[in-house]
Every structure is written in C-alpha cells, then in structure tokens.
Prior knowledge:
Blueprint: H1 3-15, H2 19-22, E1 44-45, H3 46-58, E2 64-71, E3 74-78, H4 80-88, E4 103-105, E5 116-119, E6 122-129, E7 137-141, E8 151-154, H5 157-161, E9 164-168, E10 171-172
Parallel strand pairs: 1-10
Antiparallel strand pairs: 2-3, 4-9, 5-6, 5-9, 6-7, 7-8
Amino acid sequence: xxxxxxxxxxxxxxxxxxxxxxxxxxxxxxxxxxxxxxxxxxxxxxxxxxxxxxxxxxxxxxxxxxxxxxxxxxxxxxxxxxxxxxxxxxxxxxxxxxxxxxxxxxxxxxxxxxxxxxxxxxxxxxxxxxxxxxxxxxxxxxxxxxxxxxxxxxxxxxxxxxxxxxxxxxxxx
Length: 173
C-alpha cells in the first residue's frame, strides 16, 4: 500500500461515525453527535450543577445538534440534552430519550435546583420557582434555532405541564 492510499484510508476512517453512534435511535438526531466521553457519571451537588450550567450562559454557547463545546467541565453537545448532561456531569452527552437511564421521575412539588423538566425532544434544567404557588418554574435551557444562546427564563404553567420532572440519580444535597 502506498502513502497516498494509506492517507486516504485513514481519512475515510476518521469520517465514519463511531460504532455507538450507528446504534442511536433514528428519531433523535442529537444522539448521533459524539463529543467527549468520561470514565463515569459523576456525583454532582445541586450548586455545582447550577454553577456548571452558568458557564454556558456566561460563554453564550450557541445551540447546534452538530457541534460540541469544551470548557473546564468537559466537551458536550451544544443542544438541550448536551447542556443538562454537562450540568449533571454525565459520562457523555445524552439525548432526551435516554436521560431516564440516569434519572428518576419525581413529583412536580419536589422539584429542587439542579433537577430537570423533560419531554420527548426537549429538556431544561430547573433553577427555582418564580411564584409561591409553584406553577412557574425558572429554567435554564438550550433551545433552537441554531445559533441561539443558552437562556434563563420562566415558563408558563401550561408549558411546564407538558414536561416530566426528573432528578439525576447522582445529585447530592
């Protein structure tokens, strides 16, 4: 094999997706984008989850299911589930469809900072309640269109009702 053929073979191999990406669900394109992989999901305190999430707000990280962002917390996909994966310190960028593997459903009234609100296709990190009646959650979320930065905002009760409250299994505090 000559040098030109060897270089072409190496270049082609680098362009192929990793084997784990080939088995991703076809209905969730965000799971096809691999970024960093770490030894294990970390135990993360509620405050640490909020601090980690704040870094993407500060850096104005823009939304894209085809990009990754790297900072001192690792390299994660720049979409909603990549954002929550980074905040929680997961071993890789998850998709909304497989966050159930690292979390459990909780009653809405038990939401605490660092928990999340999940639905098929979108997830947001819970920050606090805006109102005493606990109907308007304040969330940090990464949503499109491509190029939009992470935001912190309150949701209406109607929006919140469409999401399932979840708690990371390794959240501390």
